[in-house]
Amino acid sequence: MSASAWKQWLELVRSDYPLNRSSRESVLTSAVWRMGQVLHDRPGAAPFLLRRVHGVLDQVWVRNVIGAELPRSVVVGPGLTLPHAARGVIVHPDARIGASVTLHHRVTIGVRNTERPPHIGDGVYVGSGASVLGPVDLGAGCKVGANAVVVKDVPAGATVVVGPVRVLPAPAVDAPAVDAPAVDAPAGS
Fold first, then answer.
1. Average pLDDT over residues 175-189
2. Looking at per-residue confidence, does 114 or 117 come out higher?
3. With a threshold of 0.70, does the pTM exceed it?
4. Long-range contacts of 138-143, Cβ-Cβ distance < 8 Å, separation of 24 or more
5. What average pLDDT is seen over the chain?
6. For the chain, which terminal residue's Cβ has fewer other Cβ atoms within 10 angstroms, N or C?
């Protein structure tokens, strides 16, 4: 890596480390993703070879072990938090993610049909299992609760949650009505 690419990678990893230090897996996932981002579209033979190294790390660690798809073309600001090492996180290659964003496990950031991918502002929290789909803008500091599906813009500071669950009563267990024909007793009994 050139000196500027190395410096940029180191700054990004240092900005992510304090937020992910409780899990070595999260630190490694973040470092591999950041390596790809720094090397993406850099000209030259050294970046070309290092992109091949990143491709192997991405395939083995991020995709096969963690089960995530974190394309190197995604623009992500500093201070990214990946609790649970971003297990199962899927991000569209053209998505934009701001600074100080938290992405929990099983988050999907993608498109619907051929629309543009989401833009996620600074300081956004996305809970586990949430999906942000289509040409959506998440304002700075907003929160998306677990399992929420966002298909419309969310203003800065707002919170999106799934409605409260309802407990349905169990169906009454009655003896099934038997409409069997009467059986005649055998003759001579």
1. 59
2. 117
3. yes
4. 140/98
5. 89
6. C
- What does the pLDDT read at residue 26? 92
Q: What is the distance between the alpha carbons of residues 176 and 178, in angstroms, rounded to a whole number?
A: 6
What is the pLDDT, as a whole number, of residue 4? 81
Do β-strands 137-138 and 131-133 pair in parallel, antiparallel, or remain unpaired? Answer: unpaired
Domains defined for the chain, CATH in brackets: 1-67 (no CATH), 89-162 (2.160.10.10)
Total number of residues shown for the chain: 189
The vertex-107 CA angle with 106 and 108, nearest 5°, equals 115
Rounded CA separation 27/94 (Å): 23
43-77: pLDDT as tens digits? 888 889 989 998 999 999 999 999 999 999 999 99
Tell me whether strands 75-76 and 96-97 are parallel, antiparallel or unpaired: parallel
Q: Which long-range contacts (CB under 8 A, 24 or more apart) does 124-129 make?
A: 124/98, 125/101, 126/101, 126/102, 128/84, 128/104, 129/104, 129/105
Amino acid at 75: V
Tokens of 184: 């005649």
Report which of 109, 68, 110 is spatially closest to residue 85, judged by C-alpha positions. Answer: 68
